[in-house]
Amino acid sequence: MKNIFKLKKSLFTALGVLVCLFGFISCSSTNISSTNNSGQVLENSNSNNILLTNPNGNTDDNNISISDISDIPVYSGEDYIILNNNVPNFSESDLTTTSFEEYSPLDSLGRCGVAYANVGTNIMPTEKRESISSVKPSGWQSVKYDIVEGKYLYNRSHLIGYQLTAENANDRNLITGTRYFNATLMLPYENMVADYIKETNNHVLYRVTPVFEGNNLVATGVQMEAKSVEDNGEGIEFNVFVYNVQPGITIDYATGNSALSGEEIVETESSNNTTNSTGSSNNSNNTNNTTSSNEETVIRGNSKSKIYHCPGQKDYENMADSKFLVNFNSEQEAIDAGYRKASR
């Protein structure tokens, strides 16, 4: 009996050693580092920071700590940068369940300042957006390039999107922004905030700060901050800087003049009637033509429905920010492209 007890004890000891050894091997083999597309190791791939090219991503590789908004680094190819670990600069006393909106007065150069709101369902739009074509933000030029979606380089970009505060032709809330900046970079954040408010009926503290270098008339970009109030940032929280850029185009932010990348920027006498058009991909020459046409006379087509809208028609202004927008210089051009006119 004594020998059997010793045998059992030895077996349990051996089993314990095997269990420990197996655990050690398992712990060592499951510590696998993830990498990004450039092969860099991501030490913390589960952070809550927003990806620079996707507002729903998860990486903090491009997080930047700054003491002042003027410290924003020069654009280096990243469309967004994350500021201060994605935490907005709101204090506890700023959090309120009372909706409001505030817009800074234009400065001596006609430039917008901070736009600040506590967005709730009670200040969100209940009607379709009206025309904003009467506003000419600082640095505004009606200029076209074939390589730009919808052809027009610049949009009248809302600091706080219409879908959040229902502001139409408010010159304190509209800046000169590229099509890419307006429809591709800012819009996902605005959609995220709008969807959250509609789904929860909560409020989101929201602030957009345009950054102009020196006396530049066109903003380098905007700082976007947001925090959901009732759940203290659990639903929405971000602090990013979005660069006002357009792929393939070089911009003179001092004036709003522009050119295809690699070509010389030519100053224009008028800031409202310049057209830059490129031919096929085999022709890199850029031609500048002064015309009497401007953005307000363009025909707006929907590439999905193949329907075009003329100025004054019901959905003309709504098409301005559509991802299916195609612009034509005349109704005949739209018809020749296979489009038909909207009934209203």
TrEMBL record:
Chain ranges of the Type VII secretion system protein EssD-like domain: 102-228
InterPro entries: DNA/RNA_non-sp_Endonuclease_sf, Endonuclea_NS_2
Biased composition regions of type Low complexity, renumbered to the chain: 268-296
Keyword annotations from UniProtKB, A to Z: Endonuclease, Hydrolase, Nuclease, Signal
Sequence segments annotated as region (Disordered): 265-310
GO molecular function: endonuclease activity
Extent of the signal sequence: 1-28
Domain of life: Bacteria
Name assigned to this protein: DNA/RNA non-specific endonuclease
